[in-house]
Amino acid sequence: MRTSVRSSAADLSPHYEPFVNRRCLIYFGFTLDIDINVKVYDAGDILSNQIFPMTPNSISISRISQLAEEHPDAVTAALCGILVILGSIALQVGWLGLAVLILPAAYVIGGYSSTREGLTTLFQEHELDVDLLMIVAALGAAGLGLWRREYHLIVDGAVLILIFAVSGALEGYAMQRTERSIRSLMSLTADTARVIMYDGERLVAIDKLAIGDRLLVKPGEIIPTDAIIIEGYSNLNQASITGESMPVEKVAGDEVYAGTINGAGALQLEVHKTPESSLIQRVIRLVQQAQTEAPPSQQFVEKFERGYAKLIVGLGLLLAILPPFVLGWNWEDTIYRALIFLVVASPCALMASIMPALLSGMANGAKQGILFKSGAQLEIIGKVRAIAFDKTGTLTTGKPEVIQIVPAAGYTETEVLQLAAAIETHSEHAIAQAIVQAAQQQQLQLSSAIDVQAKIGQGIVGKVDNQTITIGKADFVQATSELTHISHQLQAEGKTVVWVAKGDELLGIIAVADTVRPEAAATVKRLQNLGVEHIIMLTGDNEQTAQYIARQLGINEVYAELLPEDKVHLIKKLQTQYQTVAMVGDGINDAPALAQASVGIAMGISGSDVALETADIVLMADKLEQLGKAISLGRRAQNVVKQNIVFALSCIILLLAANFLGSITMPIGVIGHEGSTVLVTLSGLRLLRH
């Protein structure tokens, strides 16, 4: 095999050498047979991406390099696997020299990371871990194969290294998820703010703002940092921060949060705290902290691996030294048995007891619209004892809808809705959009409205057919009628009441609310039947609305008017009592709690990008009923994993006992070791079945 390059790197300008001089894996003169056509281009061609064009017979070096940089662990595992297969084939066809050249490359490429981590742990922390044990076992198998000229043992050692290389790739992807979460949170914040100076406005970087600076935020813009309104009024969409389902009216003296979206009014703000102390920055830090803290289960696994490695290495040394003195073995048999011990004691079957089963369960969940981001979370969700639900967008649809229309005497529901929608078509308020949507669903013909004026915090007024139509709060409409009692009753149920009047005559009231998901109540009941001990609801919405929604769903414990950090504190409190706690949410404000929870669950369609990145499980179709299926699948996964672990440990114990009694050879030990690995892998595939 050779690489054909039809031009020299020297033909290109030295400034562009990196385009040609990419990293290449060359081992003892062998490379992949890639036919690369390199042509000379000028700077204009290079800047316009004309260098190294893709053709059916050529491969973009820059693309290969980019792939290696984005997925280094996966590329390493893939190369190791290819080399193991090629080396095994070379042995099968009798090309011993070629096999002896290829297989060491698999050892170097696949085992470099594990060797480095194992040696780092050994020298810096004075601890032994499974990484180093696997390398010693693999090198022992290779050395034994060369010593006894049983070269297939070199392949066995390479397979051990390949298994760990694949595991390292999976861990790498898990670490990248945290970085993506933080980047997504950072994208919510503005890079600059419009500062009001004596000589006009000037854009200033957020980190350069100081307390006392005056800012101008125009309609539709993102609030750049936490501040106090000193002039203007508007409605702000705070759902991303507080979880409130309705836009919030803000006037002079009110605080606004970074990352929220300004409505129709221009605002002048005064910075009252440093940008790094803003609410959105605290959210970012909470996510970082919660995701970098290792859960108890992970700490237990790490301790087990190191304890197991110490035990095996210690026993291996004793087995290599004591038998000649105690049992009268010769040194050749002693070393042979010690190396067999290292191979059969390697925890491959033990490790394979977990990941294939969890990966199969993840695939099963994906078919049902349940995305598990890691196998560990599939196992953890089966242990959940308490669940905290966000309200808006999770238990409810997250969008206000017209729930009820109560006309005054002499009018119909259609007349009230028709006139209200004619005026509200000129407003972008969420309640206005709900009223217009209700009219569209009934296919009502709307008259044209003129002279429409929005009164921030009060309502909206306009003319239809030369008659003044007023819509808004009771005080604004100046409504006093028999509908007042009904209005109070609707508000007690968590609904927002909009009054509609024509001139001085009341037409009726329209109740608007965020509606409960149809499957929410059944889901809560299902979770209770599955044995979930405690279910609570967390929301940034007001207490009255929260309590009404909770009563509909059968949830007895409710916490309302919460900020993101309040939700984190409540999750921590639940964890001290119930250990394994799940959090279900969809908004940016839920991200810290999702990260803090033992398992975070996000809604796939209505969920924000940050919630989707932070969560461990995503319900892709926003179907809450899939939550019960996820817990059942997690419990099945637990059972399969436990069965596999018992079987794997039993096989290891039997092989170790047989090796000590001298009744197995190295090939039999390898067959027993790898055979048990295959069996537990096949056992894990049972989770592919529904």
Please explain how this structure is put together:
By secondary structure, the protein is an alpha/beta fold. Helix content is 50%, strand content 17%. It has a seven-stranded mixed beta sheet with strand order 11-23-22-21-12-19-20. Strands 13-18-17-16-15-14 form a six-stranded antiparallel beta sheet. A hairpin with a 2-residue loop joins β3 and β4. α12 runs antiparallel to α24 and α15 crosses α16. The N terminus is likely disordered.
Largest sheet, if any? 7 strands, mixed
Distance between the termini: 47 Å
Q: How would you classify the helix and strand content by structural class? A: alpha/beta
> What percent strand?
15-25%
- Count of strand segments: 23
Helix content: 40-55%
Characterize the overall form: elongated
Average pLDDT level:
77
What assembly state would you assign to the polypeptide chains in this entry? single chain
Brief digest:
The chain is α/β, with parallel strands linked by helices and 690 residues long.
